[in-house]
Amino acid sequence: KITYAISNIMSQKIVSVDVGATLGDAMQQMVDNEIGSVVVTREDGIAGILTERDILKCFCADTQAAGKPAGDVMSHPLVTVDESAAIGQAADMMAEKKIRRLLVTATGTVCGIVTERDLMRATLDVFNKLSDAWV
């Protein structure tokens, strides 16, 4: 049986912006770090996640939205997955919720992020290992 825990494929690097940061600042963080989302934080912890999709929807309604606060546009509440969950569970959650990213938690604390791309790579790795086993 081949099982991959999310902890094995997640990224531990989480880029964040403050809830009051502008969309322009958040987008610059995404560009600088070559990522598709940033976690939005406030004094008491994580407030939400701001994704490319969130920004696109906002700019479709208001082409001058670069000055809007990230907290006004972010997705929330957060959808999380435990680090011990299998990749299949994470994929099911993403499909069900129609999202592309999950924050990963360990004992209730965010410790990473997993994306659709991470899941595709892990799935491809499983298929490669299975095909090698049958050769």
Task: Sum up the structure in keywords.
5 helices; three-stranded mixed beta sheet; 135 residues; alpha/beta
Compose a concise summary of this entry:
With about 140 residues, this protein is an alpha/beta fold. Helices cover about 40% and strands about 25% of the residues.
Would you mind describing this structure in some detail?
- The chain is an alpha/beta fold and 135 residues long.
- Helices cover 41% and strands 24% of the residues.
- The protein has helices at residues 23-33, 52-61, 70-73, 87-97, 116-134; strands at residues 16-18, 37-42, 45-51, 80-82, 101-106, 109-115.
- It has a 3-stranded mixed sheet. A 3-stranded mixed sheet has the order 4-5-6.
- Helix 4 links the parallel strand 4 (80-82) and strand 5.
- It starts with 15 loop residues before the first strand and ends with a helix.
- The relative contact order is 0.21.
- The model has no long low-confidence stretch (mean pLDDT 93).
